[in-house]
Amino acid sequence: LQADFSLLENYSPSCLRPLSVPLCALCAVGDGRCWPAQLAAWAERCHPDSFQERWFEDGLADGGWATEHRYIVDSPGSLLRFLHGDLPLIGEMLPGYSGLDAPPASAFEAARAAEVAKASSSETRNCSVQ
C-alpha cells in the first residue's frame, strides 16, 4: 500500500501530448476527494471536443459506507446505465437516472468552501508557539 501511495505522489508523466482517444471523467457529486476543477482539468489532456464529464448524484446507498467516493461500489446503477449507452455489452438497458453532464452549482460552492477550510487548517497547523 505504501508503494501505491508513493507511486501516486511521485508520478511524473513522460509526455504531456493530448490523448488521441476520447476521454470521459467520472465523479460523484459531493466526493471530497475530487473537486469539479480537478475533474475538468482532464480536458487539457485531450483534443478539443473529445472530453466529457459525468457526475452522479445517487452515490450514497442505505447500508453503504456512506461516502460519495465509493459510488461505484455502493450504488453502481446510474454508472452502468451511462456506460451501457456506449458499451451495450455492459449490463442491460434500464430506464432511469444516468448522471449529469456537469456538476450542479452547489458542488462548486461546496468545493470552494472545503478548499478555504483546508487552507485555513493548514495555516493553523504550521503556526509555532513562542
Kindly list the characteristics that best describe this protein.
5 helices, disordered C terminus, two-stranded parallel sheet, globular, 130 residues, mainly alpha
Major beta-sheet overview? 2 strands, parallel
Percent of sequence in beta strands: 5-15%
Shape: globular
How helical, in percent, are the residues? 25-40%
Mean pLDDT: 75
Backbone structural class = mainly alpha
Strand order of the largest sheet: 1-2
In the predicted model, the low-confidence regions spanning at least 5 consecutive residues are: 123-130
Oligomeric state, counting identical vs distinct chains: single chain
- The number of helical runs is 5
Gyration radius over CA: 18 Å
Total E-strand runs = 2
Query: Separation of termini?
Result: 38 Å
Written as H for each helix and E for each strand, in order along the chain, the element string is HEHEHHH
Present the secondary structure layout.
Layout: H1 2-10, E1 23-28, H2 36-40, E2 51-56, H3 71-74, H4 77-86, H5 105-125
Parallel strand pairs: 1-2
Describe the protein's architecture and organization.
The protein is mainly alpha-helical and 130 residues long. It has helices at 2-10, 36-40, 71-74, 77-86, 105-125, and strands at 23-28, 51-56. The chain has a two-stranded parallel sheet. The N and C termini lie far apart (38 Å). The model is unreliable at 123-130 (pLDDT under 50).
